[in-house]
């Protein structure tokens, strides 16, 4: 009999589909259990897992051998305490690709078709066609940093618009829907040609503040930055200068360094910055995808097969 720990927000989705020879306890977002977790060996954590909750779970269930997280990013899990344990970590890579890629396309079209200006004209009841020229996405150049499931889904949708799609990644292997792949920092030299820079990388020591002043100054003045990765990948001080001084044409951030972003943050008032509350992955079918991935991995775990989405804890993804 295998015991699992399930988060309260996903238990109703998963528990009816569990094999008969398993049992489970539930845990809430603060690490409180509805039963004894001491003999649990599998842990599916909930959304927005706090380090304090993670550490409470690890203390209550010292026999955990495998943890799956619904998030693609794992920087919030790889704490020193977690790394002291011999736990296989798998992530939710792939389950967010469709909604996030659609959201990125929404932000690109929002900027290209100047919907903010058109909405303002609508609100003021202004009918004037000559003052706006709305660029097409065809032949525009989009650089996607991070070519995992999300980056690949973004690329496939951009190709349908006829965009030129470049990708930045660690390994020099070709990928469908990318016209060019650049390794390491090769993409730096191409920034003056980029119309849209999309950040979809995990947060690691190598990617922290990856989008810095040098990168932002290298972009053309009309370029638009989109971040759907992690907030700390973008140097927000440099972005503040870039938007205030007009180095780039604008930015859309679905994630910021401090979340929730306080109402008094200066980011809210920056020109041409559109902030959304880390909502790009939310979809009516997200929980179903998370459950399906977890249950597939559970069957693999029980039958001794290799798990999907195993995280390299040293690399950070």
TrEMBL record:
Domain (D-isomer specific 2-hydroxyacid dehydrogenase catalytic): residue spans on this chain: 56-311
Family matches, as Gene3D superfamilies: NAD(P)-binding Rossmann-like Domain
EC number: 1.1.1.26
Segments forming domain D-isomer specific 2-hydroxyacid dehydrogenase NAD-binding: 105-280
Keyword line: NAD, Oxidoreductase
Class of this enzyme: oxidoreductase
Pfam families in UniProt: 2-Hacid_dh, 2-Hacid_dh_C
The name this protein goes by in its record: D-isomer specific 2-hydroxyacid dehydrogenase, NAD-binding protein
Molecular functions (GO terms): glyoxylate reductase (NADH) activity; NAD binding
Family: Belongs to the D-isomer specific 2-hydroxyacid dehydrogenase family.
InterPro entries, per the entry: D-isomer_2_OHA_DH_cat_dom, D-isomer_DH_NAD-bd, NAD(P)-bd_dom_sf
SUPFAM superfamilies listed in its UniProt record: Formate/glycerate dehydrogenase catalytic domain-like, NAD(P)-binding Rossmann-fold domains
């Amino acid at each position: 009999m295998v015991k699992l720990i399930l988060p309260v927000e996903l238990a109703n989705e998963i528990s009816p589909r569990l094999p008969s020879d398993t049992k489970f306890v539930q845990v809430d977002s603060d690490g409180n259990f509805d039963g004894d977790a001491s003999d649990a060996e599998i842990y599916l954590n909930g959304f927005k897992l706090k380090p304090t909750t993670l550490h409470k779970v690890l203390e209550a269930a010292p026999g955990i051998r495998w943890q799956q997280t619904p998030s693609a990013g794992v920087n919030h899990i790889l704490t020193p305490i977690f790394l002291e344990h011999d736990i296989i970590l798998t992530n939710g890579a792939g389950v967010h690709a469709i909604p996030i890629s659609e959201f990125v396309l929404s932000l690109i079209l929002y900027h290209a078709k100047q919907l903010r200006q058109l909405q303002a004209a609508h609100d003021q009841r202004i009918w004037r066609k000559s003052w706006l020229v709305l660029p097409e996405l065809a032949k525009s150049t989009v650089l996607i940093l991070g070519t995992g499931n999300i980056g690949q889904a973004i690329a496939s949708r951009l190709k349908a618009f006829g965009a030129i799609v470049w990708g930045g990644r660690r390994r020099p292997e070709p990928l469908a829907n990318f016209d060019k792949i650049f390794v390491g920092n090769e993409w730096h030299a191409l920034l003056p040609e980029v119309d849209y820079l999309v950040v979809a990388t995990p947060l690691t020591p190598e990617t922290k503040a990856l989008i810095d002043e040098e990168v932002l100054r290298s972009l053309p003045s009309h370029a638009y930055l989109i971040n759907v990765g992690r907030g700390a990948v973008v140097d927000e001080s440099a972005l503040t200068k870039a938007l205030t001084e007009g180095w780039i044409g604008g930015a859309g951030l679905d994630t910021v360094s401090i979340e929730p972003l306080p109402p008094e943050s200066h980011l809210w008032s920056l020109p041409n910055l559109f902030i959304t509350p880390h909502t790009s992955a939310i979809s009516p079918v997200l929980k179903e995808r998370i459950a399906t991935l977890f249950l597939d991995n559970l069957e693999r775990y029980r039958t001794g097969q290799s798990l999907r989405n195993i995280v390299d804890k040293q690399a950070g993804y």
